[in-house]
Amino acid sequence: MSTRNNRLPAETYAAGILAGDRLLLSRAITLSESTLPSDQELSQEVLQQVLPHTGKSIRIGITGVPGVGKSSFIEVFGNYITSLPKKLAVLAIDPTSQISGGSIMGDKTRMETLSNHPLAFIRPSPAGNALGGVATHTRQALILCEAAGYEVIIIETVGVGQSETAVYHMTDFFLLLMLANAGDELQGMKRGIMEMADALVITKADGDNLNAAQTARVTYENALHLFPPSAKQWQPQALTCSAFTKAGIPEIWALVEKFYQHMQGKGLFDLHRQNQNLYWMHEIIKQTLEKQFYENTDVKRLLPNLQIDVQSGKITALSAALQLLNSLQKK
Ligand code: GDP
Predict the structure, then answer these.
(1) Which residues of the chain have pLDDT under 70?
(2) What family does this chain come from, according to its entry (predicted)?
(3) pLDDT in tens, 270-299
(4) Domain 1-52 carries which CATH code?
(5) 54-267 and 1-52 share a CATH fold
(6) Where do the structural domains in the chain lie, given as residue ranges?
(7) pLDDT tens across 210-236, in order?
(8) pLDDT value for 65
(9) Residues with CB under 6 A from ligand 1
């Protein structure tokens, strides 16, 4: 049977998702990742139908360099959340899987006990060749999971590129995991990422590493006070945790709840999400225009020589850019 024949009517997906059917949820996510125009159309219909039932989860972004302990943390933190009990979905963005064909996240067995938990739904990184596309896929998966009644949605990303900015713009609470003994540079962290964080958690606070983790916590807590206040009007905090001893895990969840109450209390929660929706509308427009620009035949023809002219100083960057843009408008 061809994959096309496996498609169901939009109402069937929507009804299944709203009833919490995991299989139909998975299939609807797969559909939303398809590049076939007919699939895209069907997927948009499904999304439109479930949209009134979305928005009720708390969305948590988690980032940190490879090896910081993301999957170990999410396994333990996730098991804590499901024990509350709350339904939890974990989505992942792994930019390395698009670049190298391999994956920093994918090749180990990840979150084994969590993935077997009836209240947990884990979805690995979507396929795709551009971060823009992957971000769109992840946002659609998030909406579908919310419609299926997942109360907490974790979106995980490897903190090595632009993907953390995308995750920041699709979550309510942004959690940065850090190691105690590595300097900022070693952790590949840009200052910008720390500035986005609502909480910073020093991982592996156990055994011989406990003291170093506690010292690092104080250092980072002080550093966080130096950042200007964000639109969330929230003072970010630094915590420690261990995925091995489970120390600090309930405190991190308590902080998420405190944040949620703060945002709701100040009327900022919905406002923040509304602004995020606008952000994505403009992002999608920008990305689509850029793609159309570079795929245009006139631009393709003119670009190589103009690049050489700009590099050699024969013409200015502005004049080359205007020539290219004008060639587009002539159509
Ligand atoms: P990820 O690449 O960020 O997903 O990191 P992993 O969760 O795969 O962890 C990387 C390594 O750190 C593994 O060898 C883990 O066993 C180890 N690790 C993770 N969490 C802890 C922890 O809480 N304490 C200690 N001591 N080691 C940990």
Answers:
(1) 1-5, 95-109, 127-131, 159-161, 182-191, 330-331
(2) Belongs to the SIMIBI class G3E GTPase family. ArgK/MeaB subfamily.
(3) 999 999 999 999 998 998 899 899 999 999
(4) 1.20.5.170
(5) no
(6) 1-52, 54-267, 281-329
(7) 999 999 999 999 988 888 888 899 999
(8) 85
(9) 64, 66-72, 203-204, 206, 242-244
Max CA-CA distance within the chain? 68
Q: Could you tell me the CA-to-CA distances from 32 to 4, 36, 202 in Å, in that order?
A: 14, 10, 36
What is the atom index within ligand 1 of the atom nearest the CA of 203?
23
Residue 152: per-residue pLDDT: 98
Q: From ligand 1's centre to the CA of 128, what distance in Å? A: 27
Whether 70 and 183 have beta carbons less than 8 Å apart is answered as no
Task: State which ligand 1 atom lies nearest to the alpha carbon of 177.
Answer: 3
Per CATH, the number for 54-267 is 3.40.50.300
Dihedrals φ, ψ of 271, to 5°?
Answer: -60, -45
User: What is the pLDDT, as a whole number, of residue 218?
Assistant: 93
Q: Can you give the pLDDT at residue 2?
A: 42
Which ligand 1 atom sits nearest the alpha carbon of residue 207? 26
* Cβ burial 199-209 (10 Å sphere, 16+ → b, else e): bbbbbbbbeeb
